[in-house]
Write a structure and sequence with these properties.
By secondary structure, the chain is α+β, with helices and mostly antiparallel strands. The protein has a domain of about 90 residues. The chain has a three-stranded mixed sheet with strand order 1-3-2. The relative contact order is 0.16.
């Protein structure tokens, strides 16, 4: 199983199995990285420009994979735990710790520079299980009871905020006999 630089498990054997489309890929199959970050890697940008910025991975005439691209990045944007399915519930104007955390699946090997960012979301409880044990992201897991309680607590507070309360009730003012 893949490991972090500290030696803890990331919960997968091959991070690319969990990678989606590259974050730099446009809807037309072009490489946005080569356009937006030309100065970071001019040689790469020139190669892409010569091919009209077409991403070689999505080009059906090539056999390239995401692992072949030096600037591949895939971050999961679904706001739920990929292991147990717990959905995020953020409270506006609240500094409460998030239920979900980004979990990196790829790390630098042999002190080499990390070139690919592959991240997914895990709830705090699954994140701890993956890093502290042999738990895998692919395990058939239900949300931890503490996670469910935290989510329901946030939903209850949200419903309280949505409830109607007149200004008179809120500030304890008497309506002066008016109806």
């Amino acid at each position: 199983m893949e490991k972090t630089p500290r030696g803890t498990s990331v919960g997968v054997d091959d991070p690319y199995e969990f990678a989606g489309l590259c974050d730099h890929l446009t809807g037309e199959g072009r490489c946005r990285y080569a356009l937006d970050h030309y100065g970071h890697d001019p040689e790469f940008a020139r190669e892409r420009a010569d091919d009209d910025y077409v991403c070689p991975v999505v080009d059906p005439e090539t056999d390239e994979t995401w692992a072949d691209c030096p600037h591949f990045r895939s971050r999961n944007h679904d706001r739920e735990c990929v292991r147990c399915g717990l959905a995020e519930k953020r409270m506006a104007h609240d500094d409460e710790r998030p239920l979900l955390e980004e979990h990196h699946l790829s790390y630098a090997r042999d002190e080499a520079e990390l070139t690919h960012e592959i991240t997914v979301y895990l709830c705090r409880w699954c994140h701890a299980k993956v890093h502290r044990s042999w738990a895998r992201i692919t395990d058939d897991a239900a949300p931890d009871p503490e996670a469910t309680a935290a989510l329901e607590g946030r939903r209850s507070r949200e419903h309280e905020e949505l409830g109607f309360e007149s200004a008179a009730e809120r500030y304890g003012e008497d309506d002066g006999g008016r109806q």
